Amino acid sequence: MSHEANATVVNPLPAPLRGSASVPGDKSISHRAVLFAAMAEGTSRLSGVLDSEDVRSSIRAVGQLGAQVSLEKQPDGSLAGGVTGWGAAGPSQPEAPIDCGNSGTTVRLLMGVLAPWNVRVELTGDDSLQRRPMRRITAPLMKMGARFEPEGRETLPLTVCGSEGLRAITYDAPMASAQLKTAVLLAGVYARGTTTLNEPSPSRNHTELMLPEFGVTTTAADRTASVTGPAALRACEVQVPGDPSSAAFLVCAAVLKPDSSIQVENVSLNTARIGFTRTLERMGADISVRHTGAAGKEPYGIVSACYTPNLHGCEVPADKIATIVDEVPVLAVVAAHARGVTVFREVSELRVKETDRLAAIVEGLETLGVDAWIDGNDLFVEGQPGLQVPVGAAFDSKNDHRLAMTWALAGLCGNAPVEVENFDSVKISYPQFLTDIERLAR
Ligand code: S3P
Q1: What are 64-115's pLDDT values in tens digits?
Q2: Is the separation of the CB atoms in 183 and 111 below 8 Å?
Q3: How far is the CA of 260 from the centre of ligand 1 (A)?
Q4: 108 CA distance to ligand 1 middle (Å)
Q5: Does 178 share its domain with 190?
Q6: Which of the two ends of the chain, N or C, has the fewest CB atoms closer than 10 A to its terminal CB?
Q7: Can you tell me the distance from the alpha carbon of 216 to that of 431, in angstroms, rounded to the nearest whole number?
Q8: Whose CA is closest to atom 16 on ligand 1?
């Protein structure tokens, strides 16, 4: 790779991807481990925590709120160590606003963390985060008794005005969002009675699985999760498995690059997260999954993938989108190489991610010469077996980490170099992405 101004030139991999790799810790589980440990009484021991900008936003935030964090860099690049929480004393009133950077998970979960305490905390973030919708979180928390200032404002910066007398609620979420579910459940831990969150389709369930490790009972079924308060978190040990959303990039690369065959080890195999393996299977990709263990209640194992020349289009139904919500961009690039049309149903949530990923996918595929379109809230990709990357193809990551890796992948697995504007944004979730993929292709 080489850099020109803000553009990174990504060259085709010189060889097939071969051998084993492991990916850094899961971002969703890392955020929760840090935040829940900060809420708990005592010192939790965390290992395998992802060291990326987003998780650093959570670490900085809980530090400002009074948790003692001593996580240190390990030889494998992860963070491990202790976090001593504020427990029954509650978070301390920070002197300055909390800047959550690019991290939607940090800011949305923090709203639920802070709502049950008598604090006033201003939350803000970078330009992207300041454009993202927050009403989906503030609406249920206001029903519970928290306030947000300025009143009626739907985007950051916002000040959370917590209250120690929160009411338990039953809330029907308008969209499947684990961030929304988690914020409500975390506030519910301190509210008197049972707080229940119903969702239109199942979103990732890391919160429901991890809270019991911290001594808080949760009940969870297909589209509903509850917690009964008031309860209290106590310190525990959390081991974070590898991030399936990062593994998806290596797996998709292996499926697209001729003669490849790889295994990605220690990947979270939580069924709410590995929808991408099912989508690839439906496209006819040669991949398999093997369980090898569990970290707490989170299963992990090995995902194996081989080059597959005869991919075909498939349909992903609306109720499965939450299980691939962060993988749609890279799966769209795989779909671009498949015979026939691939349909991703009801993907409107992609419009409100770090950037409008739906528009960005269509724009990027157009750069590749691939026909893709949006009809209502459905995304269609007309695949082209034997797709060639146009010479001089240039993509804009729009400062979105998953788009940066998606368009880089088109170049890495293709026949010609591509340029990716602001590739640097990979530091949000997978800083060593290029090194890892280039190491597999030596
Ligand atoms: C996340 C949930 C998803 C996902 C995000 C992380 C989480 O967002 O896109 O990257 O850790 O809970 P939504 O809950 O808004 O769908």
Answers
A1: 999 999 999 999 999 999 999 999 999 999 999 999 999 999 999 999 999 9
A2: yes
A3: 31
A4: 10
A5: yes
A6: C
A7: 33
A8: 177
* pLDDT the model gives residue 234: 98
| Strand arrangement, sheet containing 237-239 | 68-73, 79-84, 43-49, 237-239
3-state secondary structure of 72: strand
Q: Is 357 annotated as a binding residue?
A: yes
pTM over cut 0.70:
yes
CATH number for 391:
3.65.10.10
- pLDDT tens per residue across span 253-264: 999 999 999 999
Burial of 432 (C-beta count, 10 Å sphere; 0-12/13-18/19+): middle
Measure the CA–CA gap between 171 and 224, rounded to whole angstroms: 10
Distance from C-alpha of 192 to C-alpha of 185, rounded to nearest angstrom: 12
Q: Last residue of a domain, which of 239, 266, 282?
A: 239
CA of 179 to the centre of ligand 1 (A): 5
Owning domain of residue 274: 7-24+242-441
Number of domains in the chain: 2
Q: Classify the phi-psi angles of 292: left when phi > 0, otherwise alpha if psi is within -120 to 50, otherwise beta.
A: alpha
Predicted confidence (pLDDT) per residue in 14-42, tens digit: 999 999 999 999 999 999 999 999 999 99
For ligand 1, whether the C-beta of 400 sits within 6 Å is: no
Residue 306, helix vs strand vs coil: strand
The whole-angstrom separation of Cα 54 and Cα 249 is 18
Beta-sheet strand order (sheet of 315-316): 315-316, 341-344, 378-382, 371-375
Q: Is the CB of 54 under 6 A from ligand 1?
A: no
The C-alpha atoms of residue 274 and residue 321 are separated, in whole angstroms, by 11
Yes or no: say if 148 and 161 are a contact pair by the CB < 8 Å rule: yes
Task: Give the atom of ligand 1 at the shortest distance from the alpha carbon of 28.
Answer: 11
Ligand 1 in reach of 195 Cβ (< 6 A):
no
Q: For residue 380, list its beta bridge partners.
A: 343, 373
Instruction: Please tell me the distance from the alpha carbon of residue 116 to that of residue 90, in angstroms, as a whole number.
Output: 9
Give the strand order in the sheet containing 98-99: 98-99, 120-124, 158-161, 147-149
